[in-house]
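Researcher: Here's the sequence for the chain we discussed earlier.
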Amino acid sequence: KVKVKNSGTSLKKGSRYAQVGEAYCEDNPRSNCKVRFYPGTPFGNYNLLEADPNKFGLVYSCRQTIPGILNTQFAWILTRDKVVTDTDMQYYLSVFKKNGVDTKSFIDTVQDCRDN
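Model: Thanks. This is the structure I predict for it:
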């Protein structure tokens, strides 16, 4: 298992937040990881769609909240650089689209982390 730290900025309040959790990845496929942020809660699916360890990681998660009625989906574009070129962003979005992920509701996050 590894330690995971998610941090970001609240869109409503503008304040910073962080949450530490734990994760492990399955052997086959290696890109299917399980993550949780609270002990005793179920692990969520985090699927690594594509990565370059020196540049980026593209992660997608889909969970049945109410089976057959409602699901919750998350996607992350994780980069080493705070500023992403338009060319790189178009490539990253194309990977999500190629994997059947609708990118219309993606939100650009200001990358001004001072704690990492």
